[in-house]
Write the structure tokens for this entry.
Amino acid sequence: MADISKEQVKHVANLARLAITDEEVERMTKQLADIINYAELLNELDTDNVKPTTHVLDLKNVMRKDEPREWISKEDALKNAPDQKDGQFRVPSILE
């Protein structure tokens, strides 16, 4: 595993538009190295018989089937409309 250098930490901080002090660079260099070393532990696992997954949970589509069904008539829909014209709802104009 390659070690994280102070220059790399400064470069990433610059890309993130972060102003960091030399003390913070020192601390973050060690912290990032620790994180990468911890992640390297995953390489020690035997994953030969593990199927690749795209998500850890077994997600299913929760959408209902799109089936035709009978709806209310246009007249019933417009029956309680406060304002209508030519079989359509009329609403106040929002454009000047």
